[in-house]
Known about the structure:
The chain is mainly β. The chain has one domain (about 20-239): Beta Barrel (Porin), CATH 2.40.160. The protein has 1 helix and 12 strands. It has one helix at about 1-20; strands at about 25-40, 45, 50-60, 65-90, 95-120, 130-155, 160-170, 175-190, 195-205, 215, 220-225, 225-239. The protein has an 8-stranded antiparallel β-barrel. Strands 10-11 form a two-stranded antiparallel ribbon. A hairpin with a 6-residue loop joins β5 (about 95-120) and β6 (about 130-155). It is elongated and about 75 Å long. The relative contact order is 0.20.
Amino acid sequence: xxxxxxxxxxxxxxxxxxxxxxxxxxxxxxxxxxxxxxxxxxxxxxxxxxxxxxxxxxxxxxxxxxxxxxxxxxxxxxxxxxxxxxxxxxxxxxxxxxxxxxxxxxxxxxxxxxxxxxxxxxxxxxxxxxxxxxxxxxxxxxxxxxxxxxxxxxxxxxxxxxxxxxxxxxxxxxxxxxxxxxxxxxxxxxxxxxxxxxxxxxxxxxxxxxxxxxxxxxxxxxxxxxxxxxxxxxxxxxx
Length: 239
């Protein structure tokens, strides 16, 4: 067994010494995103797309010239829009406290720390260009979540009214961890023998329900279920 591990170590070291590529590369990325909630439960819907941003550091562990593990640490700012029925707590003109059902339009702004890990495969060079594909998992930790809500309701005087609540802390309404499937395709343009610019399109979709809040539907309280997805125009410089 000892001889086997020594042989494996020798092969790895030899491969690294004589390879025509770097076994390890670093870089950074800056990527605009387009995100949305995947909420199609009864009484709870995702409403359109919102622009966000991802930026951070990239690390590539190259097993061969065309096969590698891609990871890094990213800051991600994502937004999503929801509509549902909720409880509006208010007071009337006589300072009497009461609660009522209201239609809610909510925009949630998330800040995540992401640690993606994926397998990346790429073609041989066509001139200075390679085509690549990647697949893996992206683990994200939510450290901030703010919400803007608009409540639409009929008040105690039977008049239609709206109420706006901005910059509300809703971190406790969503899970700390978001586990996502990561798929990507793109191209690499070589600058020199080892440095290159990578441009591609990534799809990132949560595998777990991230909602922890309740909403109302026809007077019945329900647990919210939704995931969060985004497309990412991945732009990275690797050196």
